[in-house]
């Protein structure tokens, strides 16, 4: 089930909105054509992202996990940069995006969506 945590989303939106945010998407596709539906979602979402000043900065397929442990790997990773938090919220609420989201949602068996803030100390 792909659902935003209301508490986490509220906390995310309440924080400072003064700079870009990158969304890390770890994706596990549904076994019944999920990868193909995800590509359709991306075709639908790209012009919407552009309209909000957002862009895909990295898209890649997962390779075998190199670390030991119970965690399974992910099928794909997507990094999307938004101008700020309120832009992400506006896009999520956009009616055209909601149509694309339904396609994207049907493509996935599991997802981790984690916002990232650029860290200038490490650059």
TrEMBL record:
<dbReference type="Pfam" id="PF07045">
    <property type="entry name" value="DUF1330"/>
</dbReference>
<dbReference type="InterPro" id="IPR011008">
    <property type="entry name" value="Dimeric_a/b-barrel"/>
</dbReference>
<feature type="domain" description="DUF1330">
    <location>
        <begin position="37"/>
        <end position="106"/>
    </location>
</feature>
<protein>
    <recommendedName>
        <fullName>DUF1330 domain-containing protein</fullName>
    </recommendedName>
</protein>
<dbReference type="InterPro" id="IPR010753">
    <property type="entry name" value="DUF1330"/>
</dbReference>
């Amino acid at each position: 089930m792909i659902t935003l945590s209301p508490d986490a989303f509220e906390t995310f939106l309440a924080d400072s909105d003064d700079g870009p945010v990158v969304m890390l998407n770890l994706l596990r596709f549904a076994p019944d054509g999920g990868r193909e539906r995800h590509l359709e979602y991306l075709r639908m979402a790209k012009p919407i992202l552009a309209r909000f000043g957002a862009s895909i900065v990295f898209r890649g397929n997962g390779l075998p996990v190199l670390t030991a442990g119970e965690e399974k790997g992910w099928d794909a990773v997507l990094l999307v940069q938004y101008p700020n938090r309120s832009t992400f919220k506006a896009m999520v609420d956009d009616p055209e995006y909601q149509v694309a989201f339904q396609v994207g949602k049907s493509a996935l068996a599991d997802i981790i969506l984690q916002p990232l803030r650029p860290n200038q100390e490490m650059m």
